[in-house]
């Protein structure tokens, strides 16, 4: 009996020591790993800055020729809306890192920079001015945009334009856009009635703008109207990606065709759809990896957007060094290849898988909480995303799927078990309070409605 | 071999009891027949096959029903078994039957039932007592256990256990269940089957048949040495060992006595075998001392025949009475096309009319137990006194799923009529009423429309309230009263849209 006790004692001690060792070791390992990885990145960046000699031509982004000016424009453009920030959710740019990203891109041939008045709440223009000042003005192309929604008189337009020149520390813009045209009424009022378009044409004559275009967010009729109203657009900026190429709301495929017919060159925005096409879900990513093991998920989206011949440049709003590197890798001469017909088919398949299992960008930060109507927003999204990421989202329209009954049961059970009844998506009344609070800009009421409809449909089908 | 009957009885009882409890627990729908076999529900549902079966079973073999099929009886046997385990010398003594009490209770039960006081009769109806125990006492405990298993089950990717809400459904039902559980449990622990033989109306009724049953426990007077062991063993206190008499109206065929007799004087045999001449027949009542010899075979047969005829007539009569009422209500529901505009509790879908529902419902709370959305609750006084503890619909925890007819499927008495899903979708159990003063449009000045979005029959449409706001408008013709709008209405504490029940449910005619 006593022996037994003794044994137990030593055993207990052993376990305790083992636990201590394990915990300590774990913390140490984590610290070392974290320190190393962080150090690795910073050394890489530091070395990169010192790298004076230009990279190989093969490592530079490929160029397309501007049909009007004959300038060579890099097919990858640097979007200035999503620079890394100092504090999440605030506009202040992490200038040191951003500068390095710009330098890296510039050295690898990126010569198109796209900023706008509202980006980073006005800080983007100031920063890009500071960054580009270090380069020869002829070696880069700068695009800026007139914030249509802020113009109430011609004086507003003049004031803002001059402010933009001052902030960007330039004397002219290579590309100037009417920002975010959404409807005919506003366009007619601001650009026709107030005479802002005339003013911009004058600026073009005086050389303060080299080329005039617009960025578009409206419907098809309005687009046709714009093309007919003024037939001297030098370029047009549209959203174009494989996700909503055929989307009835975006019509980007049709928009591109219209522009090609008119021989107007196209600048692509949102090729990665705000980062959505860089993450996708497990199944979709696996399909892409299978086809091109070395290429990133985002590279497909960039390549897709840059494939049509009439596209001048593809803008990517890069917010991390890795993204710049990845994009440059995708678009550099040694790696770039347009999307082939078979790859197009693959992307269509990928999209199908993704639409079925599309996760929501919720990070679970809980800024949206508490919901005034008791909905557990992050909880609902968590369940949805877990299922989506497992590629086991049940589709009530495809009950022939042999796994449907299991998927349905899994989804409903998880949903019921993890979200209490009074906190489920059906209690969302779309008041919209959460939308303003979401740092990921998730359209929470819309997503809630989607999930609610899904649950309803699942409950009405037999398992 | 001599105690094979007892073993069979225990085996069957355990099997039945397990089946009915598995059915109550939830996922085992295949055991629904255990509930369909319960006597009073079968009578109320006019399930002739079951009634004839129970009649025949009892007439042939005695009150096997009470020992095997009745869950309350088996539950009492569990207590009795426990008492014997605790006190190895547990003894029962013969007692005179409390005939006045039991038959007046039986009479009261029947009269209450016929005069529309089913709720009152239900208080002592054995099946519903047990079912109420389950819903109000055992279920919450099981839910707690279930909720413990849930995270584990999900982690292992079984997705078999779904978390259950545990909440107070009705204070009164809970208190009543606890009180009855204690009373019946204690009575069983101390005095065996006393509840069954003095209070239970089914026990009294079957006892009445049991008296004339064909196969009985008989005491061989030649072998009996008057040791009184059988009487002490009898949990029904029905063996008068001193006089070698058995009160068959109280014997529940547990066969414990057969084992107790060291002389092998007891056996379970048909009355027409020779030995029965030693047995005292209690054709009237056992306090009338009639010796075995004075009872002729012919007399017995005569009375049995009389009894059979009476019983059959009584059953037919009862059934006609019930059928009559059913026809009335069906006709009534066709005639009433306009909604009755008055405050009224909502009946479960398939109840057809309040009158019929109250006539048939024995408050067994099985529907409450089974309702997946926690829509059903025991009523307190919502139906008035005459609907005490009968289920009513409440939409604070969910709405009545348009694709669910579980309550109507499980109802053993037919109080909630069996509805196909197609019928269910067209059954109007009430209508929604909009109360603007509670609506968020007025109180919070925002647009909502959650009621419209969740109406499964598109009975609600949005109309302009002012330039910026829309409010719901209910199409009563389309509204089935499922309460989805009421449940999803975000207005607190009072929903801006709520359902008023119909006292006679309607069907949407295309």
Question: Topology of this protein?
Answer:
The complex is a heterodimer of chains A (463) and B (510).
Chain A: H1 2-50, E1 63-65, E2 72-74, E3 76-79, H2 95-107, E4 112-114, H3 123-132, E5 141-147, H4 154-168, E6 173-181, H5 184-193, H6 196-206, E7 209-216, H7 220-229, E8 235-239, H8 252-261, E9 265-269, H9 276-279, H10 282-291, H11 297-306, E10 311-316, H12 321-331, H13 341-356, H14 377-389, H15 404-418, H16 433-437, H17 444-460
Parallel strand pairs in A: 3-4, 3-10, 4-5, 5-6, 6-7, 7-8, 8-9, 9-10
Antiparallel strand pairs in A: 1-2
Helix pairs in contact in A: 2-12, 10-13, 11-12, 14-15
Chain B: H1 4-25, H2 33-36, H3 39-44, H4 48-61, H5 64-68, H6 71-86, H7 99-114, H8 118-122, H9 126-155, H10 171-191, H11 194-198, H12 201-210, E1 215-219, H13 229-233, E2 239-240, E3 245-246, H14 256-260, E4 266-270, H15 297-335, H16 354-360, H17 366-370, E5 376-378, E6 391-393, H18 406-410, H19 421-426, E7 427-434, H20 440-443, H21 450-454, E8 460-464, E9 470-474, H22 484-488, E10 497-507
Antiparallel strand pairs in B: 1-4, 2-3, 5-6, 7-10, 8-9
Helix pairs in contact in B: 6-9, 6-10, 7-12, 9-10
The level 1 CATH classification of the largest domain in chain A is Alpha Beta
Strand runs of chain B, count: 10
Measured between the Cα atoms of the first and last residue of chain B, the distance is 66 Å
Based on Cα principal axes, name the global outline of chain A.
Answer: globular
The largest beta-sheet of chain B arranges its strands as 1-4
Instruction: Kindly report the average pLDDT value of chain B.
Output: 85
In the predicted model, the low-confidence regions of chain A spanning at least 5 consecutive residues are 1-12, 33-44
Q: What composes the largest sheet of chain A?
A: 8 strands, parallel, barrel
Sheet with the most strands: spatial strand order of chain A: 3-4-5-6-7-8-9-10
Annotated CATH homologous superfamily of the largest domain in chain A: NADP-dependent oxidoreductase domain
The topology string of helices and strands of chain A comes to HEEEHEHEHEHHEHEHEHHHEHHHHHH
Which structural class is indicated by helix and strand composition of chain A? alpha/beta
Query: CATH topology of the largest domain in chain A, which one?
Result: TIM Barrel
Mass-distribution shape of chain B:
elongated
């Amino acid at each position: 009996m006593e022996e037994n006790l003794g044994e137990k004692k030593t055993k207990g001690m052993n376990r305790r020591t083992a636990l201590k060792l394990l915990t300590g070791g774990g913390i140490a390992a984590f610290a070392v790993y974290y320190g190393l990885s962080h150090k690795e990145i910073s050394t890489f960046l530091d070395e990169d800055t010192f790298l004076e000699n230009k990279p190989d031509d093969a490592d530079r982004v490929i160029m397309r020729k501007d049909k009007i000016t004959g300038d060579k424009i890099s097919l990858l453009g640097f979007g200035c809306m999503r620079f890394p920030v100092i504090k999440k959710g605030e506009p202040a740019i992490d200038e040191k890192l951003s500068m390095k990203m710009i330098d890296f891109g510039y050295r690898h041939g990126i010569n198109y920079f796209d900023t706008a008045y509202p980006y980073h709440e006005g800080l983007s223009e100031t920063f890009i001015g500071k960054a580009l000042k270090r380069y020869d003005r002829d070696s880069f192309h700068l695009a800026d945009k007139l914030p249509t929604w802020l113009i109430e008189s011609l004086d507003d337009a003049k004031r803002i334009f001059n402010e933009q020149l001052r902030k960007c520390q330039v004397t002219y813009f290579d590309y100037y856009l009417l920002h975010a045209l959404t409807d005919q009424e506003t366009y007619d009022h601001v650009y026709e009635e107030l005479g802002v378009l005339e003013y911009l044409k004058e600026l073009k004559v005086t050389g303060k703008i080299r080329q005039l275009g617009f960025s578009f967010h409206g419907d098809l009729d309005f687009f046709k109207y714009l093309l007919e109203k003024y037939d001297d657009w030098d370029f047009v900026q549209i959203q174009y990606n494989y996700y909503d190429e055929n989307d009835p709301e975006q019509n980007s495929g049709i928009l591109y065709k219209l522009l090609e017919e008119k021989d107007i060159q196209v600048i692509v925005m949102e090729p990665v759809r705000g980062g959505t096409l860089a993450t996708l879900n497990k199944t979709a990513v696996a399909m892409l990896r299978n086809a091109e093991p070395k290429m990133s998920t985002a590279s497909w989206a960039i390549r897709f957007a840059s494939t049509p011949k009439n596209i001048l440049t593809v803008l990517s709003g890069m917010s991390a060094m890795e993204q710049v590197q990845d994009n440059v890798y995708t678009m550099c001469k040694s790696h770039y290849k347009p999307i082939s017909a078979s790859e197009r088919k693959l992307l269509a398949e990928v999209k199908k898988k993704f639409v079925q299992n599309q996760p929501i960008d919720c990070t679970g930060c809980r800024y949206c909480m508490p919901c005034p109507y008791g909905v557990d927003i992050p909880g609902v999204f968590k369940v949805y995303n877990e299922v989506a990421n497992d590629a086991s989202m049940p589709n009530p329209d495809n009950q022939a799927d042999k796994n449907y009954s299991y998927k349905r049961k899994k989804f409903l059970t998880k949903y019921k078990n993890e979200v209490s009844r009074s906190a489920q998506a059906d209690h969302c009344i779309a008041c919209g309070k959460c939308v303003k609070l979401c740092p990921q800009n998730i359209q929470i009421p819309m997503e809630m409605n989607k999930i609610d409809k899904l649950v309803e449909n699942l409950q009405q089908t037999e398992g | 071999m001599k105690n094979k009957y007892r073993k069979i009885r225990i085996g069957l009882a355990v099997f039945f009891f397990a089946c009915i409890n598995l059915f109550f627990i939830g996922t085992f729908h295949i055991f629904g027949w255990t509930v369909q076999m319960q006597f009073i529900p079968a009578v109320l549902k006019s399930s002739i096959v079951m009634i004839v079966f129970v009649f025949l079973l009892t007439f042939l073999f005695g009150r096997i029903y009470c020992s095997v099929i009745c869950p309350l009886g088996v539950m009492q046997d569990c207590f009795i078994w426990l008492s014997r385990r605790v006190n190895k010398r547990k003894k029962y003594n013969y007692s005179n039957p409390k005939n006045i009490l039991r038959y007046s209770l039986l009479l009261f039960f029947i009269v209450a039932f016929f005069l529309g006081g089913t709720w009152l009769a239900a208080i002592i109806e054995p099946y519903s007592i047990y079912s109420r125990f389950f819903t109000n006492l055992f279920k919450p405990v099981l839910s707690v256990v279930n909720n413990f298993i849930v995270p584990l089950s999900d982690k292992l990717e079984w997705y078999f256990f779904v978390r259950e809400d545990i909440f107070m459904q009705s204070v009164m039902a809970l208190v009543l269940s606890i009180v009855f559980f204690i009373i019946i449990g204690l009575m069983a622990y101390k005095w065996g089957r006393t509840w069954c033989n003095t209070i239970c109306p089914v026990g009294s009724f079957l006892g009445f048949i049991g008296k004339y049953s064909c196969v009985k426990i008989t005491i061989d007077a030649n072998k009996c040495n008057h040791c009184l062991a059988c009487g002490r063993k009898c949990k029904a206190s029905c063996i008068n060992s001193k006089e070698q008499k058995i009160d068959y109206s109280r014997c529940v065929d547990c066969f414990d006595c057969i084992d107790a007799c060291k002389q092998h004087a007891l056996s379970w045999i048909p009355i027409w075998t020779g030995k029965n001449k030693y047995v005292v027949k209690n054709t009237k009542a056992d306090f009338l001392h009639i010796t075995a010899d004075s009872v002729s075979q012919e007399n017995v047969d005569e009375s049995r025949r009389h009894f059979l005829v009476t019983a059959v007539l009584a059953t037919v009569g009862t059934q006609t009475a019930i059928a009559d009422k059913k026809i009335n209500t069906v006709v009534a529901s066709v005639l009433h096309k306009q909604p009755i505009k008055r405050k009224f509790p909502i009946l479960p879908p398939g109840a057809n009319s309040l009158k019929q529902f109250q006539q048939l419902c024995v408050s067994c709370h099985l529907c409450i137990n089974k309702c997946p959305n926690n829509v059903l609750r025991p009523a307190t006084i919502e139906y008035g006194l005459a609907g005490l503890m009968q289920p009513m619909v409440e939409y604070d925890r969910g709405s009545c799923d348009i694709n669910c007819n579980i309550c109507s499927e499980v109802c053993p008495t037919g109080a909630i009529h069996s509805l196909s899903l197609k019928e269910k979708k067209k059954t109007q159990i009430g209508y929604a009423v909009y109360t603007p003063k509670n609506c968020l449009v007025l109180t919070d000045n925002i647009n909502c429309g959650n009621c419209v979005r969740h109406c499964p029959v598109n009975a609600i449409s949005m109309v302009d309230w002012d330039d910026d706001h829309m409010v719901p408008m209910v199409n009563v013709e389309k509204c089935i009263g499922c309460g989805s709008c009421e449940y999803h209405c975000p207005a607190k504490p009072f929903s801006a849209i709520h359902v008023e029940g119909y006292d006679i449910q309607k069907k949407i005619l295309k």
